[in-house]
Amino acid sequence: MRLKDRVAIITGAGRGIGRAIALAYAQEGATMTLAARSAGELEETARLAQELGAATHIVLTDVTKQDDVDEMVRQTVDRFSTVDILVNNAGIGGPVGLLQDNDVAEWIQTIQVNVVGTYLCCRAVLPVMIAQDRGKIVNLAGAGATAAWRNTSAYCASKAAVVRLTENIWLELDGKNVQINSLGPGSIDTRMWEQLRDGAELVGDQDLFELGKRVTSGGGASIDRAADLAVFFASDDSGKLSGRLISAVADDFDNLPPRIPEIMASDAFIVRKVELD
User: What are residue 219's phi and psi, to 5 degrees?
Assistant: First the structure.
């Protein structure tokens, strides 16, 4: 079991990708704090994880609020003595439509959840991980991190920011045995994609609507594959791999371990400007 005796915090654990990661971690022996805003959904995830033998703790958490995040980490340390793994999965798709037509509060809220939430959670766990000289952080990115989509400016901007934040923290962790990476899950059939699909239909974005329709009709990426990548990042299999964006869809992460020294000596899997020859 690759995560035996490891303590993980998973945000947005009530449904979708967060729940899939929690169950994959349970199968690998992890102990977990499950965090989100909905008690009912968290209780169901906890029940399923406990059936797989995992010890769990639920903390109702709004990741945009520093006091909530600090309390989430405090309760985890009090209950399980440490934090070995953080999965920043909580996220929203945000408003769909032209930037100038977006509701300003909704646009800002997307940045608050996706970027500020990730920042606050990293900020809260890093002292624990650095003090124990061990830690793994997994930040959920998305297609918007590497490609611009019409009518999704808040989502794309936030996910690009998460990837660059991951790289910045990696540089600041130089010399520390704490690794941080971005996980590109692919377009998975979740509530977020249902909302993007419906929003695209309302604003007449046929391309985004057709993509959303395909994703939510069985043509999306594998949620299990995304969870497998989250296990890889959290386990010793990922070694010193850090500051990288790996896709569960496009990258053969099962065969990455032998190449990690080579990857870390290069700009591979890092977002960079590409110059013309």
Answer: -105, 15
Convert the pLDDT of each residue in 105-118 to its tens digit.
Answer: 999 999 999 999 99
Instruction: Give yes or no for a contact between 193 and 216, defined as CB atoms under 8 angstroms apart.
Output: yes
Indicate the pTM of the whole model: 0.95
DSSP state of 147: S
The tokens describing 209, both together, are 């609507």
Residue 80 in contact with residue 54, Cβ under 8 Å? no
Rounded to 5 degrees, φ, ψ at 38 are -105, 115
| 256-265 residue pLDDT tens | 999 999 999 9
The one-letter amino acid code at 121 reads C
Arithmetic mean of pLDDT over the chain:
95
Q: Is 7-186+222-263 assigned to CATH 3.40.50.720?
A: yes
**Is the pLDDT at 135 greater than 90, yes or no?**
yes
Q: Which residues contact 51 (CB under 8 A, 6 or more apart)?
A: none
Contacts 24+ apart (CB under 8 A), 102-107: 102/153, 102/154, 106/154, 107/153, 107/154
For residue 274, give every residue at least 6 positions away whose Cβ sits within 8 Å of its Cβ, in sequence order, or none. Answer: none
> Does the active-site annotation cover 155?
yes
Out of 25, 80, 107, 155, the active site residue is: 155
